[in-house]
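Exercise 3.2. Students should predict the tertiary structure of the chain below and write it as structure tokens, then compare their answer with the key that follows.

Predict this chain's 3D structure.
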Amino acid sequence: MSAITTHVLDTSRGRPAGGVPLRLEFETADRGWQELGHARTDGDGRVKELLPAGFALQAGVYRLTFDTEAYFAAQGIAGFYREVAIVFEIREPEQHHHVPLLLSPFGYATYRGS
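Answer key:
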């Protein structure tokens, strides 16, 4: 399992959000972004392998961006947010970091998971 994982729950349907495209990036010294990985959530709304095998997590700022427009369009729903970007800082890279997203067509919430 990656040192950074995520899952998406569609609160409007009361179930996991499968098929959500997302990418993980790391903030570089010049404040740009370097892509580390990309995936789609599985049928349980989870991504367990987001980082490349053997990747050594380091302290710094990371960004998870979820393509919510593509997810809702696949269901024939016009949502309000095209994407959701969660920017977070890792201070203890030896720990596992789980970043869940609670999603509906007109709102979202996130928190540090376990």
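Discussion points: Residues 4-110 form a domain with the Immunoglobulin-like fold (CATH 2.60.40.180). The CA atoms of residues 90 and 96 lie 10 Å apart.
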